[in-house]
């Protein structure tokens, strides 16, 4: 999050840094290092795909250098790092982009995207073009491709049966640390608490929180199932991330290299998407075998409450006219 500088100051410094970088740009043939920082674990399917699909596809002109588990930059500070020229890539979210560009909050709304294919259609649609163009022009970040994280559910360490939003009253639900995430937690009926992803396991273990939300593959990969009792299949957000790339670095690439980076990003995203979908299909049984309760709540009740909250919110005022209908029609 742009905590140190105001958004305006950061966007201004980005333009200055871009000009400086352009002045000192090295010869086009030079090998580049692509550092990526993300709180994702190295065994997260997106991380695996970037390492096994993206990296080799660009290896003759670029060295992919990932830093997982937020080991280079804190969750939520990566976009600022790219804008300042301190990082080349990240796996960012609409929630993080909404900190800079409020219109991105439309993609953070619960029960909007239908599934992984819908995310791809929305990302590639003409309606998305102005969103991408603004991030590129004002933050110096290219959104290369969309990555599927999965359907977010409620992962709770408490016994209470949750069928409707009212059943979440008083539940301390960890949500990631931006306002858009906190809003979603409240819209679900819970008491949201901001916390970095890397702290969630311990917070569940110690009882500092009653639960958190993430898709099934993340619950498996980060071993949250060891420290929770139940998974409530709310599917409240078909969650996406964007593969973010420094515009300054992009401009140093030849057209051929740019095409290869783009193709490699799309191939990695597609590989990760298929793996995440396969995991989602098999993991309910895995968690039941671990002794967890896994059940579907009253989905119409959750959908109605969450959608009403977004439409009545200030967020929706920043959305381009007609965008929800356009997205629904895709
Ligand atoms: C999380 O912090 O819960 C979250 O799932 C939010 C996502 O947008 C994304 O940042 C993700 O963490 C990380 O990639 C770790 O999986």
Q: What small molecules does this complex bind?
A: 3-deoxy-alpha-D-manno-oct-2-ulopyranosonic acid
Q: What CATH architecture of the largest domain would you give? A: 3-Layer(aba) Sandwich
Structural class: alpha/beta
Apparent shape: globular
Q: What is the overall number of helices?
A: 13
CATH superfamily of the largest domain: Bacterial extracellular solute-binding protein, family 7
> In the CATH scheme, what's the topology name of the largest domain?
D-Maltodextrin-Binding Protein, domain 2
Strand content bin: 15-25%
Name of the top-level CATH class of the largest domain: Alpha Beta
Secondary-structure element pattern, one letter each: HEHEHEHHHEEHEHEHEHHEHH
Main traits of this protein?
D-Maltodextrin-Binding Protein, domain 2; 2 domains; 13 helices; 330 residues; binds 3-deoxy-alpha-D-manno-oct-2-ulopyranosonic acid; disordered N terminus; single chain; alpha/beta; 9-stranded mixed β-sheet
Detailed description of the structure:
- The two termini are 31 Å apart.
- This protein has two domains: 2-149 and 240-277, Bacterial extracellular solute-binding protein, family 7 (D-Maltodextrin-Binding Protein, domain 2, 3-Layer(aba) Sandwich); 152-237 and 281-328, D-Maltodextrin-Binding Protein, domain 2 (3-Layer(aba) Sandwich).
- The longest helix is centred in the last third of the chain and has 35 residues, at 255-289.
- Helix content is 45%, strand content 19%.
- The chain has 330 residues and is of the alpha/beta class.
- Helix 2 (45-58) packs antiparallel against helix 11 (255-289).
- Strand 5, helix 7 and strand 6 (191-194) form a beta-alpha-beta unit.
- Strands 1, 2, 3, 4, 5, 6, 7, 8 and 9 form a nine-stranded mixed β-sheet that branches.
- The chain has helices at residues 7-23, 45-58, 78-83, 94-100, 116-124, 129-139, 179-187, 200-206, 216-221, 247-252, 255-289, 299-311, 323-329, and strands at residues 32-37, 62-67, 89-92, 141-156, 172-175, 191-194, 211-214, 230-246, 293-295.
- Bound molecules: 3-deoxy-alpha-D-manno-oct-2-ulopyranosonic acid.
- 3-deoxy-alpha-D-manno-oct-2-ulopyranosonic acid (KDO) binds at residues 38-40, 44, 91, 93, 149, 176, 197, 214, 218, 241.
């Amino acid at each position: 999050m742009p905590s140190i500088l105001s958004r305006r100051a950061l966007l201004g410094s980005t333009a200055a840094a871009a000009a400086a970088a352009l002045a000192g740009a090295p010869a086009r043939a030079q090998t580049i290092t692509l550092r990526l920082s993300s709180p994702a674990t190295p065994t997260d399917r997106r991380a695996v795909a970037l390492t096994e699909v993206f990296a080799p596809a660009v290896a003759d002109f670029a060295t992919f250098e990932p830093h997982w588990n937020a080991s280079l930059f804190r969750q939520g500070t990566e976009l600022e790092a790219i804008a300042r020229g301190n990082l080349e890539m990240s796996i960012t979210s609409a929630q993080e982009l909404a900190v800079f560009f409020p219109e991105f909050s439309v993609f953070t709304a619960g029960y909007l995207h239908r599934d992984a294919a819908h995310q791809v259609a929305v990302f590639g649609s003409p309606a998305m073009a102005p969103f991408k163009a603004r991030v590129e022009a004002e933050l110096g970040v290219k959104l290369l491709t969309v990555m599927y994280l999965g359907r977010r559910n409620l992962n709770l360490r408490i016994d209470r049966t949750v069928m409707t939003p009212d059943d979440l009253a008083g539940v301390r639900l960890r949500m990631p640390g931006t306002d858009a995430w906190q809003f979603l937690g409240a819209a679900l009926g819970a008491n949201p608490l901001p916390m970095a992803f890397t702290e969630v396991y311990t917070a569940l273990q110690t009882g500092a929180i009653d639960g958190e939300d993430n898709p099934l593959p993340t619950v498996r990969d980060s071993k949250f199932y060891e420290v929770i009792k139940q998974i409530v299949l709310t599917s409240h957000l078909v969650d996406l991330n964007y593969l973010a790339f420094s515009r300054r670095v992009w401009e140093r690439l030849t057209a051929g290299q740019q095409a290869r980076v783009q193709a490699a990003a799309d191939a990695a995203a597609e590989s990760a998407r298929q793996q995440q979908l396969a995991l989602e299909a098999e993991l309910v049984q895995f968690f039941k075998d671990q002794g967890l309760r896994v059940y579907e709540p009253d989905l119409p009740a959750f959908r109605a409450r969450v959608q009403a909250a977004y439409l009545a919110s200030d967020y929706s005022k920043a959305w381009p006219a007609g965008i929800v209908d356009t997205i629904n029609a895709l």
